[in-house]
Amino acid sequence: MAEISWPWQYNFPPFFTIQPHSETRAKQLEAWQQLIAEYMKASKKSTIDIRESQNSPLFHNASINRKLSSEALLTILEDMAKTGRAAPIDKSKNIWEVYWHSLDEWGNMIYSWASNNGLNNSVCTLFELQEGDNTVGEEFHGLDMNILVKALKTLEVKGKCELMEFDDSQGVKFF
Amino acid sequence: MRRRAGVGAIQKHRLEQEKYREKGSEIQENQFQQMSKQLEVFRENLEEFATKHKNEIKKNAQFRRQFQEMCAAIGVDPLASGKGFWSVLGIGDFYYELGVQIVEVCLATNYKNGGLITLDELRTRLIAARGKAKKHQDITNEDLLAAVKKLRIFGNGFTVVPIGKGKWLVQSVPGELNLDQTLVLQKASALGTAWVSTSILIDDLSWNETRAQNALDHMVKEGLAWIDTQDTKETLYWFPSMFAECVSAS
Question: How many CA atoms lie within 13 A of B77 on its CB side?
């Protein structure tokens, strides 16, 4: 279980009920988004399955007996999607990817790591990026492979790298 | 047979009346002059006193309160005007400075409490934000109340809501709380739970359901209360401004 310092809202019972007043709701959604992002980051997870959400302490505070309902979680995730901080990966919107950094930010982070390590014009495998010894200590070390690929694709669009397929793995060439 | 009054008598009477009136206004004039003189002397003394103890007033909360009380008792408000001899003393400045700091604290915490803050939390935060010197730390609730009252000149944006037992809330959003809403806050404060419900208002304040619901709905609409539908019995209305963990959160 990820250890994070829970914000005060986590122990505030109405935090688990979507608020009807728009200004209050905006504050509530913002607090949830920060909490979700922080929790996912601490537990090194990138996906949320709404159907299983209530098994996670993140959405179920047993000490005050409050749960975040599936509908409420969907509201929060859809709001995160508006600012590019989450995206559904199945059609029924049950499984969501959460980006505690936007894909753009991830892309830039990887690119500056590559530049700093003189990897321009050379090729490395995605496995090296994700699990390699050179990236230990980088924030993207251990990042979900799907997100890694999406982040690199944002770089590819900018012409900063090119994704390539090998026989059984993927690689990337930085420019 | 009764004789009617002659012209002479009437004139004599009128003359007398006039003389009385003259004498009367003369005495009044005299008294007025004397009073003005006394007041002048008093003002001078008070001014001298205040000048002499200026630093004491600024530094010492106890002294400041007594000075305020004295001024209030004789109907003088040293904060009423920046002009005149009080401005020399800088007593007003002390409260204006406090006022600005109060506004800062209220704005900084608005995101979590919706513009309602207990005087105690306000004081704790304000003292933390001020310097570490003793004179910066020595701020009483009376000082804060005096300063908030001065903020009224900005309209009804800053008001003090008494919630009983020597406790106050400072409201920093426009819009006045009506009596019912104040009673709701008092109830929540008295219970110490940070929440109330319609049934509590109905039972404890003998309100009917519509009245209770209206008051609570209005507070939700103002962003002062959060609703919680997960209680087993009924909907609860929570006030973050009174929720201990919210109060102590940075």
Answer: 10
> pLDDT tens digits, residue range A23-81?
899 999 999 998 998 888 888 788 888 888 888 888 999 899 999 998 899 999 899 88
Confidence of residue B79 (pLDDT cuts 50, 70, 90): low
For residues A109 and A70, membership in a common domain is answered with: no
Name the residue among A7, A8, A13 with its Cβ closest to that of B230: A13
- State the pLDDT at residue A16: 93
Yes or no: say if A161 and A175 are a contact pair by the CB < 8 Å rule.
Answer: yes
Q: Could you report the per-residue pLDDT of A124-143, keeping only the tens digit for each?
A: 887 877 787 777 777 778 78
- What residues of B are in contact with residue A66 (Cβ under 8 Å)? 228, 230
- Distance in Å, alpha carbon of A173 to nearest chain B alpha carbon: 45
Q: Which helix (H) or strand (E) holds A163?
A: strand A161-165
The domains found in chain B, sorted by start residue, are 30-152 (1.10.10.10), 177-250 (1.10.10.10)
| DSSP symbol at B2 | P
Among A8, A14, A23, the residue with its CB nearest the CB of B228 is A14
- B187 and B196 Cβ atoms separated by less than 8 Å: yes
Q: Which domain holds residue A69?
A: 8-98
Residue A119 scores a pLDDT above 80: no
Amino acid at residue number A129: L
CB contact under 8 A, A12 and B226: yes
- A1, part of any domain: no
Question: pLDDT band at B108, cuts 50/70/90?
Answer: confident
What is the count of structural domains for chain A? 2
Long-range contacts formed by B216-221: CB under 8 A, 24+ apart: B216/B184, B218/B178, B218/B181, B219/B181, B219/B184, B220/A19, B220/A20, B220/A21, B220/A24, B221/A21
> Coil, strand or helix: which one is B210?
helix
Cβ neighbours, 10 Å, residue B214 = 14
